[in-house]
Amino acid sequence: MNAEKTDAPRAVIVISSHVARGSVGNRAAVFALETLGFPVWAVPTVILPWHPGHSRATRIVPPLDQFKALLADLERAPWLGEVRAVLSGYLGEAGQAEAVASLVAAVKARTPDALYVCDPVMGDSGGLYVPEPTAAALRDRLMPIADIATPNRYELEWMAGAPLPDIKAVTAAALHAGPSTMLVTSAPSMLTGGTGNFLLDGSQALLAEHRVIERPPNGLGDLTAAVYLARILSGQPPAKALQSTTTAVYEILARTAKRGGDELQLETDAQSLSHPMAMVQLRHLLHPGRDKRA
């Protein structure tokens, strides 16, 4: 059998947490990317039996020298030309950020148009859940080199050093965050009882909205970052990628909630990743770089 040959790199390096049970971190991102047709090189930053939000859990962080050595091996890998993007999420410790940045530089040296997506996983409405030096490393070392960043609203608030009560404030913070494309999850919605994903790039400001589902399982941010990256790598324009990503993640969330699941049930709802059918409203907002018209 002849293997199909492709000249375009399609692999994605995903660097995030690994849980034995659940659908967060690498478990969510790898499943989504592979389901959507992208080979994945998966690197764990920490290993846990389950999300620590369920209960106390053993936490295994690879020794920093070994973590750096492993990523250095990837930099020298003869297959590095296969890689089209790097997606980083939760870090086990602050020192891992420098190794991630070095790998991103190596990938871009080999494939100049490769993408780096930084999901700065550091906290939520309850505040930071990583040590402040780790959050600072995400903000100061990885956010500035990202092509796309996918913070939630609360992470963007911490990085901006100010509350973001409305979409105008979120827009201003996203504009000054560094990456040329910002996808902010848990953004303020114009819908009563709603929430949204806000996308700001060099030419447009977009808000994809849906109703809030109370007490959602963990992993929505991990899944959103991976699905949006897959849409962009597949050639979708940003507006379509935002709407189809939001639709897919919301549909999986709604179906999981209806079943009473405590984790996203990706294996059951894999079809929603490629062919979502939920309704999501997309708003085109005034871009901050454009002059207001009467």
List how many beta strands DSSP finds: 11
Largest sheet: 9 strands, mixed
Approximate helicity band? 25-40%
Number of helices: 9
- Low-confidence runs: 1-5
Oligomer: single chain
Cα separation of the termini: 64 Å
Order of helices and strands: EHEHEHEEEHEHHEEEHHHE
Query: What amount of the residues lies in strands?
Result: 15-25%
Shape: globular
Structural class: alpha/beta
- Could you tell me the mean pLDDT? 91
Q: Round the Cα radius of gyration to an integer and report it.
A: 18 Å
User: Widest sheet: strand order?
Assistant: 2-1-3-4-7-8-9-10-11
Provide an overview of this structure.
- By secondary structure, this protein is of the alpha/beta class.
- Helices cover about 35% and strands about 20% of the residues.
- The protein has 9 helices and 11 strands.
- The strands form 2 sheets. The chain has a 9-stranded mixed β-sheet with strand order 2-1-3-4-7-8-9-10-11, sandwiched between helices.
- The longest helix has 22 residues.
- The N terminus is likely disordered.
